[in-house]
Write a structure and sequence with these properties.
Blueprint: H1 9-32, H2 34-48, H3 54-65, H4 71-91, E1 105-108, H5 110-119, E2 124-127, H6 135-142, E3 147-151, H7 157-169, E4 175-177, H8 180-191, E5 195-199, E6 209-212, E7 215-218, H9 222-229, E8 234-242, E9 246-251, H10 263-284, H11 298-302
Parallel strand pairs: 1-9, 2-5, 2-8, 3-4, 3-5
Antiparallel strand pairs: 6-7, 8-9
Helix pairs in contact: 1-2, 1-7, 2-4, 9-10
Length: 308
């Protein structure tokens, strides 16, 4: 049910029809199996993505990030990123089959995750929308680390319930929705000794300013605030796509934040450290990043020269 929100019958009917369509698509993709579903999703968005208005955002993002890249190479990269985004969408319906046991998931730094588990002390996991990013929380939980996973609730509550059930199939049961209620859940989880996991590469209209690909961005201070408050580290994670619908998740060296007494400056340094980490991963495999969202402030886009 849609919870406490008051909705009209037409809105409820619309949501229910969308949920039926979403469920049907999920059944189709799961029937296709991992390889064919991934290929279908990749083909679909590689075909349709460039025909949408969002393609302009992808190209503009690539111009900002790689100003010296040749237009032909930029277009090739945009098409490849559309395909990988489509694959990721399809693969999220099949994550319970993308596991260690299936041979589709490997982890570098597993001993680091086990050390976090064995310590009984929480950490703040940070990452970005890289490759099939849902494999990162699956790897964390498979390593035995209790962790609150933040997520953006779908606007359609019936679809949201389906997504939560799908995540539960591969072990994600501790959810914290973004927003005020989610922040309280994260704090309560950390108090209990549960780690938290947050994405830190989406547009944020407030908060400290950091540098991303040589341009200013506002980035969420939440991960750094939590790490400083609970005296723990930021634990960066990343994932890259491998051939054959396989993925490598890496637990990197932790980011240790210094507590100098200047809280604003300490948080700002943490924000920049996380932003730089994401940039480094994007530079390594730019095709894997989620280029379809507007990461930079409007003034950075406005400063772009007209395309020739």
């Amino acid at each position: 049910m849609p919870g406490e929100r008051k909705i009209g019958p037409l809105q409820d009917l619309s949501w229910r029809l969308e949920a039926v369509a979403f469920a049907g698509l999920t059944v189709l993709l799961r029937a296709l199996g991992v390889e064919r579903a991934s290929a279908f999703g990749g083909w679909l968005l590689r075909t349709l993505g460039p025909k949408t208005g969002t393609h302009r955002t992808v190209i503009r993002n690539l111009r900002i990030a790689f100003p010296d890249m040749a237009p032909a190479e930029r277009e090739r990269l945009a098409l490849e990123s559309w395909e990988r985004t489509g694959r990721t969408f399809a693969e999220t319906t099949l994550l319970d089959r993308i596991t260690f046991e299936s041979g589709r998931l490997e982890v570098v730094g597993l001993e680091r995750l086990h050390a976090i588990r064995d310590s009984g002390r929480p950490v703040v996991f940070v990452s970005g929308h890289l490759a099939c990013f849902e494999t990162m929380p699956a790897a964390i939980l498979a390593a035995g680390v209790p962790c609150q996973i933040t997520y953006r609730q779908a606007n359609n509550p019936y679809v949201d319930a389906q997504i939560r059930r799908a995540r539960a199939r591969y072990g994600v049961k501790l959810f914290a929705p973004k927003g005020g209620d989610g922040a309280r859940e994260l704090l309560a989880g950390l108090e209990r000794g549960e780690s938290v996991a947050l994405m830190n590469d989406q547009k944020f209209n407030e908060g400290p300013e950091a540098v991303f690909f040589g341009q200013p961005v506002n980035a969420a201070p939440g991960p750094s605030r939590l790490a400083l408050r609970f005296g723990t580290v930021l634990q960066p994670m990343s994932v890259v796509r491998l051939p054959g619908v396989r993925f490598r998740v890496t637990a990197h060296d932790p980011i240790v934040l210094e507590s100098t007494g200047d809280r604003a400056a300490d948080i700002a340094r943490g924000v920049q450290a996380v932003t730089s980490f994401v940039e480094d991963r994007v530079r390594e495999v730019p095709e894997d990043w989620f280029w379809v969202h507007k990461r930079w402030p409007d003034r950075v886009y406005a400063a772009l020269s007209p395309e020739v």
